[in-house]
Amino acid sequence: MTSSAKSASDPILTLAAKPDDFATRKLHKKHRPIGAYIAVAVIMIIFLFPLLYLFNTALKSSQEFITNPVGLVEHPQWSNFAEAWRLGAFGDYILNTALYTFAGASIGTFIALVMGFPVARKYIRGGKLWNALFVLVLFLPNALMTQFHLLLNLHLYDTRIGYILMVGVGVGIGPLLFSGFVKSIPTELDEAAAIDGIGYWRYLFTFVFPLARPALATIFILQAVWIWNEIILATVLLSDSSKWPIATGLNAFKGTYSNNWTLLAAATMIVAGPLIIGYIFIQKYLVNGVVGAVKG
Amino acid sequence: MAASSSFPFPSRHPVRTSFSVGAIVLIVFAFVPAIAVVVVSFTNLKGLPNLPVDWIGIENYARYFGPARRSDNINALTNTLVFATLATVFQIGIGLAVAILLNRPLKGRNFYRSIVFMPTVLGVTVTALIWSLMFNTSGGPIQSILNAFGTESAFFGDDNIALYLVVFCQVWMQLGVTVIIFLSGLQAIPSDLYEVAGIDGANSWQRFRYVTIPMLAPSITANVLLGIVNAMQSYQLTYVLTGQSNKATQLLSLQVYEQAFGNAQGRQMPGATQGYAAAISMIQFVLVGAITFATLWYLRRREAKL
User: How far apart are CA B83 and CA A112, in angstroms?
Assistant: First the structure.
């Protein structure tokens, strides 16, 4: 980097030093540092190579994988994907996952909205206690066994509804994030709406909801990502494998085909594919949204 | 901040109704099971629903700390602490370096940021399978590199390094979250602070040490806490990567799962001892809480000093 400790007594030196000392950002723009790009390249390799290698493996025939596991694929076997799809019953799993993810994340986001807002506004008694509970949710003990018995007693064991309700509250950070965000909505808006005779429900859903869309989207996405990838609760709470989400299905697939890497890689690509494609569409929103939510 | 105690709407009923709907779901499905864990940890609850349940006091805890399982339990405890410490330290260290790098006006930096965050979206199972393939012992890419140097490794099959490889996978998967929290912290630092430091003749290390680090204190706190809580409680990665009952990578929460549900895929096992599992769960809960609050207390004190 620049050695900018110049003697301040010499006015010419000080002037010359100015571009160095001021606005380091502009400085970086001028000489693009090779070192930074090399570092970025290394990071990109560590993060992208495993995925490319997975894809490469998924396209190999078992024969080719045994004789040449690392090399670039020579005869792409697209049929691996069809085979993995059929053997793993991923069609059903994807539908299950889509349902669980959407329903669970919606429940979680709804809870964040209806609880986070009044607590942040102190419209509810015991707001401090609730805030403490929102934090406590993050620390709750591993409750697999009691969740199992709760659903058993509610006759919700091995039902989609039971699993959805459980994962809906699974990411407890929603109300906490949302009550943080509410501070950026002016209280005057509440008052103005109330004077205009707008009821609380309508206010919450037609005013707060659109205003808080970035925060709610972040909460929704964080939960959706978590639910999409959840495997343990699904194993414990759903005994019927046809109700499993795709991540659990993939884990079971791994147990069955642990030695067949080409098939296993294809199955992993099938699961990762929708995530990668979905991520491409939401990445800007997600990355910025999380930055915003954390700031708030 | 602003006095918001006054209630502008004509009736509190809708507030209470909507709040209650959310609260009931949260209480029933999150808090009730959690509180029930406390109760269950003092009983001999089995996996089967029809067996009698007796109050057995602190027997489960005595059993946990008792000599019969001491070496196994100390092993799981040590693994958990090593795993959580290393994962948190590497996430913070590497995450900070990557965040500073990706905060520079490099060409295509949004793309780089997205790529670093991607494994978080891919999740545990995909991450575990990707790295199982990468660490594949029969000619996988990393084995090939090692072969070039004339050495070999059993990777996840090698008890001396398996835990560290899981740490590596955890850091790979979680780094994006850390980076994003640091990036938001970095963006909140006003650039005139660097200008003033520059006028004072601070070199780049000094600017980092006396401007960046103090200004990032809240982000560091957030990342340390998230890292600890996450790593202390996570076991899905180990579960998929190295399977169950692997001594080298045994973790507290994996013990909970194994004791509660055995090897059965979600079915109730006659041999499962859920009361005991609940006791382990409580021990973990207390440990996570104690470490988190000690860390929080320490970091807050440091923040105040800076």
Answer: 32
Task: Give me the helix-helix angle, B70-103 and B217-233, nearest 10°.
Answer: 140
CA distances for A88 relative to A61, A80, A167, A271, B61, angstroms: 18, 12, 23, 11, 42
As a whole number of angstroms, the distance between CA A123 and CA B67 comes to 53
Shortest distance between the Cα of A271 and any Cα of chain B, in A, equals 7
Contact A223, A171 (CB under 8 A): yes
Q: What is the reported pLDDT for B57?
A: 87
pLDDT of residue B244: 67
Closest-CA distance of chain B to residue A91, Å? 17
| Preferred mutation among B4, B25, B26, B208 to probe A, highest tally of A CBs within 10 A | B26
Average pLDDT of span B271-298: 90
A82, A270 contact by CB (below 8 A): no
Is the separation of the CB atoms in B216 and B186 below 8 Å? yes
Tokens of A287: 């990355």
Which parts of B27-134 fold into alpha helices (H)? Answer: 32-40, 59-65, 70-103, 109-134
Please state the ipTM of this predicted complex. Answer: 0.87
Q: Which two tokens stand for residue A6?
A: 């110049």
**Could you give all domains of chain B from N- to C-terminal order, each with its CATH number?**
72-304 (1.10.3720.10)
**Chain B residues touching residue A25 (CB < 8 angstroms):** 104-105, 191
pLDDT at B109: 87
- Supply the DSSP symbol for A231: -
Best A125, A146, A228 member to test B by mutation, with max B CBs in 10 Å, is A146
**Nearest-angstrom CA–CA distance, A94 and A107:** 20
Tell me the average confidence (pLDDT) per consecutive run of 10 residues in chain A, 296 residues long. Answer: 39 42 47 86 96 95 89 91 93 93 96 93 89 88 91 94 94 85 89 91 92 86 88 92 93 90 95 89 73 54
pLDDT at B37: 95
Q: What are phi and psi of B43, to 5 degrees?
A: -120, 175
Using the structure block, give the residue that is written with the tokens 């790593």.
Answer: B231
